[in-house]
Request: fold
Amino acid sequence: MNKRNAYILMMLLIPTVVFADKVKVRVFSTANIAYTKISFENSTYSLVGDNVDTIAANLKRGDFVELTPFAKEVVVSVNGQKKGNFESVSFVTNQDDAYFYISPKGYKQRSYEDDLHITALNSKYLQLINHVEFEKYVAGVAQSEIYGKHADIFRVQAIISRTWAMRNMEKHKAEGYNFCDNVHCQAYYNRCIREDIKMAAKASINEVLVDANGNLIETPFHSNSGGQTANSEDVWKSEIEYLRSVKDTFSYGMKQSEWTKEFSTDKWLNYFAKNHKLNINDENVRKELLNFTQDERKAKIVGVPLTTIRKDWNLKSTFFSVVYYGDKVVLEGKGYGHGVGLSQEGAIRMVELGIPYKEILVHYYTGAKVVRLGAEEEMEEPVLLASTTAADNNVADDFTNDVMTMIAMVNDPAGVAVEDEKKKETKKVETENTDKSKRSSDLASRMLNTKKQLEKESSANNNVDNENGWVYEW
Reply:
C-alpha cells in the first residue's frame, strides 16, 4: 500500500460522528460588549456559573438574563434580579433545536443555536463563545457568506466552508476557541434560519475538497473575479497547485463585476514617488503609470505589487487599468476581492445556468476533488473542465479498486470478499439516488415558501439579522 493510498484510506474512514461534535466560535468578535441581554424562544435553557453551580434552570420564552463585566467577572441578573458575580457563565440545553437571542447594547440582535459560554475579557468587556454543532455552524456560515436563490450555491459554499473549517480547526487555539465569526475566519452572523440553506448544507454533509494527495485544501474565495481569477503567488507568497488563474466569464455582468475610482494625476504619481521611490520624471516610468492596462491579470505595475496598491488606495480589487485624462486618472476596475479561488458571483451564475456544483468547484480549485468523508469510495469525477485519457481512467479505476480493497480489509478482518462490498455499495448508491431525487423535489417546494417563512420569523423578532443581500470575502 503506497503512502498516498494510505492517506486517502485514512481520510475516507474517519467516522462521520467526529464532524457532528461541537465547535467553539467567538461571536461578536469585533465588538466591544459592555452589556448584553440573553433571551429564549422555543427551548429551555439552564444557566450555570463557573461550570459548577446552577444559577437558574428552565429558562424559557419570556425569561431574560442580563450580563455585564466587573473586575474580570461576569455580573448576572435573571429577570431583573441580581444573582451574583462569576468567573464564567454558560447557557446549556439538551434540546437539539434550541436557540437563543443575544442583544448587546449598541449592536444588532442575533440568534444562535446550542450553548453559549461567557467570560469577562477585562473589567470592561464580555467575550461570547457559541458552542455549536459543527454542521449547524457550516449552515450558519453558508447563510452569512453568500446570497442566492438556488440550493446548489449554498451547497457550494457549505463545502468550501466545511473544508476550510476542518483544515483550520485550531486557528484560535491559543485563545481557547476554534474560530471567530468575521472574515478573519468565516462570517457567522446568525444561526441558519432559511430552510433551503439548511437542506442544501445537509445534502452536502461530510463533502470536502482534497488535492491529488488526499489533503484538505485551502478554499479562499472572493466576491467577483472580474473575469479571471488570480494565481495564489500573485496575491500571497506561496504557489499552490490548485489555486491557479482561470478564465471566469461567469463573473461578467454580476453585481460586483466592475468599478471605477478617480484621482488627480499628481496624487497618483506622487504616491509612487513618495512610497516606492520611483522616478516619475522618467518618461518610461511615467508612461507605464498613466497607461497601465490589464486585459489579463498582472501582479505588478513598474515593479510595485498590485496587492500593495489595492491596500493603500482601498481598491475593490487589483484587476484594474489606468485611463489618463490630463489632470486626472481613472482606475477602471474589474471584480471585488483578492481574486484567488472561487468567485462567489461567478459560482452563482454557474448555478443559474444549471452547471452541477461539483463542476463549479473544480473550475475554481484546479485539480481538486470532491470527496465525502466516511464514504466507501471517492465521489465521481466532475466532467466540465476535466479532460482525461484512457490511461488516466485506468489509473483512476485501479485506485478506486485499491481503496475498495483496503476498506474491505479494515471493515472485515475475517476477510469478507471485496465483491460483496461492491454489491452493498451498488445498493447504497441506488438508495442515495432515490433519496436525492426526493430531496430535490422537497427542496424546490420549500424554496417557494422561503420568503414567507423568513418574514414570519423576522416579524416575531424585528432585530434578527436574517437577509443576505451581501457577499463577504477574505
